[in-house]
Design a protein that fits this description.
It comes from Terribacillus aidingensis. The chain has helices at residues 7-24, 28-42, 46-54, 64-78, 91-100, 132-140, 173-184, 232-244, 261-271, 279-286, 290-301, 322-332, 338-358, 360-363, 379-392, 400-404, 424-437, and strands at residues 113-116, 119-122, 125-131, 144-145, 154-158, 165-169, 192-197, 209-212, 217-220, 226-230, 251-257, 308-309, 320-321. It is an alpha/beta fold and 442 residues long. The chain folds into 3 domains: 7-100; 113-271, no CATH class; 279-437, no CATH class.
């Protein structure tokens, strides 16, 4: 029987606990079990527990009761004797902790609720900023709701006990998970979240909100239905992310309205009446790498301006698509940071300009018939390979014209006629081979 809790035993248990959690932290069953055990038995919030799981060095800062309950939770799941707290703690002390320890409960709020730093745009329209933790607090307190009359369609679910059909928010879990990962990696760009303090829903209808221009506060009064108008997936992602990564407390823009249901419907309809965006343009915006940065710089500072198509097809002025050029750059360069991307932008800007000036009729004019292969979209895989080879061999870009003169770009080209009727992969292989075999020495 243990008589005394010693420094040595605390140190040993701490080390074993860290080692065990580190080995299991990526198992969902483990993390959910630990959270549930500590929440049920000791009122520790999932966010607090996830913070420990994410950074086990924090275990070294736990006091004796906290160390005991975390060890108990892990032992309850793993049954590993080295993390059994009863092996380290005196029986009486263990009993006291098990019966008396209570963690900090989650803070809840209620209406009236005061938002600070708010500006009034119109009588029923306000803007400001809000921290992610504040959004989570409002959600945890069930103050934010999803209004099916003004939002996207709902899923219908039958209550197994009452047989009642109830609507639930139509949430795309993959979208929520993507938002969680963006928050985790500090990649989520702060955007506007829109809420509606529904006009006429307060305990005193018509007085759902009170705005004080002197201290820039907006108070939501009791009874008000506070609808999430736009951003429900982001709100769901924020709540989920903070449970796992409580230190990711980023700031969002917030728009608070005081509309009737009818006006809210009209607002939502206008907000979602947008022209469709092409798949290629979405891919362009979503693509996050340095080749994207390089192409954007080339569009701004070289003769490629207005000559890169954002769609999968080619418009009359375009000589290459955005996706082709970024893929060709990625194929030939492994850019590790923005500095390298800036340097490559300068080099390729000069390369592109020399290329266009060497064949001005084809690249800068309308005459594309005599040497049609020059302005073929996939030819930029070859141009980028050549640019890379010239860079590696320290060949002056002033020699580009002479090097390209060795290639037959004419309509009856012996180098490229074999690309006709070929699939994309075979076509690209032919182009790559031509530009790999050509001598870059003059």
């Amino acid at each position: 029987m243990v008589q005394l809790l010693t420094e040595e035993s605390v140190s040993t248990l701490t080390d074993k606990l860290i080692e065990t959690i580190d080995s299991l932290r990526h198992e969902k069953k483990f993390t959910s079990n630990i959270k549930q055990f500590l929440a049920t038995n000791y009122s520790l919030s999932p966010g607090q527990v996830q913070g420990i799981i994410n950074d086990t060095s924090k275990i070294k800062g736990l006091n004796s009761p906290e160390l005991y309950v975390y060890a108990e939770a892990v032992y309850n799941f793993t049954e590993k004797e080295e993390v059994d707290p009863d092996k380290y703690y005196p029986t009486r002390m263990a009993k006291e902790i098990a019966t008396e320890f209570k963690g900090e409960t989650e803070e809840t709020v209620s209406f009236p609720y005061v938002f600070e730093g708010i500006e009034q745009v119109a009588e029923d329209d306000f803007i400001g900023t809000i921290k992610a933790s504040e959004i989570k607090k409002l959600m945890d307190s069930q103050l934010i709701q999803y209004n099916f009359d003004t939002q996207r369609e709902a899923r219908l679910r039958k209550n197994s006990k009452t047989e009642e059909i109830i609507p639930i928010p139509k949430v795309n879990e993959s979208s929520v998970n993507e938002i969680v990962n963006l928050i985790k990696n500090d990649d989520l760009i702060s955007s506007m979240l829109t809420f509606n303090a529904r006009l006429g829903s307060g305990d005193t209808p018509g007085e759902e909100i009170i705005y004080n221009s002197d201290d820039r506060t907006l108070t939501i009064n009791p009874g008000t239905l506070f609808d999430c108008m736009d951003g429900f997936h982001r709100v769901s992602g924020i709540v989920t992310a903070l449970l796992q990564y409580p230190d990711k407390d980023m700031i969002f823009k917030i728009n608070i309205l005081n509309f009737t249901v009818e006006k809210a419907r009209a607002y939502f309809a206008q907000m979602n009446t947008v022209n469709p965006v092409s798949k290629a343009q979405i891919e362009r915006f979503a693509k996050k790498n340095y080749s994207t940065f390089v192409v954007e710089q080339l569009e701004y500072s070289s003769e490629l301006k207005s000559r890169v198509s954002t769609s999968h097809g080619m418009n009359s002025k375009a000589v290459v698509t955005f996706n082709t050029l970024t893929a060709a750059i990625d194929e030939n360069w492994s850019l590790k940071n923005k500095f390298e991307a800036i340097q490559l932008s300068k080099y390729l800007g000069e390369f592109i300009n020399n290329l266009f000036y060497a064949y001005p009729e084809e690249f800068l004019g309308d005459s594309k018939t005599s040497r049609p292969y020059l302005t073929m979209n996939n030819m930029f895989f070859g141009y980028m390979k050549l640019a890379k080879r010239m860079q590696e061999n320290n060949v002056s870009l002033m020699n580009l014209n002479s090097i390209l003169d060795k290639i037959d770009f004419s309509k009856d080209s012996k180098d490229f006629t074999s690309t006709k009727g070929k699939g994309a992969k075979q076509q690209l292989d032919i182009i790559r081979n031509v530009f790999s075999d050509i001598s870059v020495t003059i």
